[in-house]
């Protein structure tokens, strides 16, 4: 009933009455590129669940900021149809909160699939590819979240004790340490040389863009989505976290409480703190037996897990 191609010129004229030409252009682009692409029902039949789905797919493709622009564009288009064509569309369905983040599916990516992905990526050179390989390996060997990996600062990495300090976990959860695998250290050394040439002044984040700015959750999510399609391997950034937990549980007989400790799950963490003595030694052994931890540098340095255990028992959490 309402074909945007036929109504586009009228919509532009309508927008010019209240917003700038630049904003009008952005709205038209958002509608054509995202709204109509992901809208699989007639506009008159749209429900809140459809709107949420459109926002979610947009976030997975381009990030939350683009989804906000799509939301504003849809509002304007609904106003246009109601004012000009008396469409009587229900604008209340648009008043839904844009998701903070979206997990597209419940896929997991195990260590073998991760190694396959890295081998494919290694065929391409360049700083961005170098960074992406490092990012995927950190996620695959630590199980940390998207927010946590973009939040890693240079001084959070402890080469002496083979740990990464997660200073700002999701929500109000406690800071924690995760182990630094040899394969990650191997890629880190080369990456840091190039990273330090590019980084803007005062940028301390480990992961940066080619322009030297810090990476965002939206940008790395878009990278994962693009590379998943390019290499035909079904994964999201969250798939590495789920894959590590699954392998630790199924292949190494690790208790779920200890996996919760590694992943920083708040509710299970409370149980661990007050009722269960988490066996960090057993957790470290399980990690050591994980496939990705078995890949060493060409000249591997000896990793003393006893020293790491001492660090876990005696080291105090940094002040924020």
Structure description:
The protein is mainly alpha-helical and 320 residues long. Helix content is 57%, strand content 3%. The protein folds into two domains: 4-94; 111-314, hpI Integrase, Chain A, CATH 1.10.443.10. Strands 1-2-3 form a three-stranded antiparallel sheet, with no helix packed on it. Helix 5 (111-121) runs antiparallel to helix 6 (127-142). The model is unreliable at 268-279, 299-303 and 315-320 (pLDDT under 50).
Quick rundown:
The protein is mainly alpha-helical. It has helices spanning 4-16, 21-38, 48-62, 64-85, 111-121, 127-142, 146-150, 182-198, 217-230, 237-252, 256-263, 266-274, 280-288, 305-314, and strands spanning 157-158, 163-166, 176-179. The longest helix is centred in the first third of the chain and has 22 residues, at 64-85.
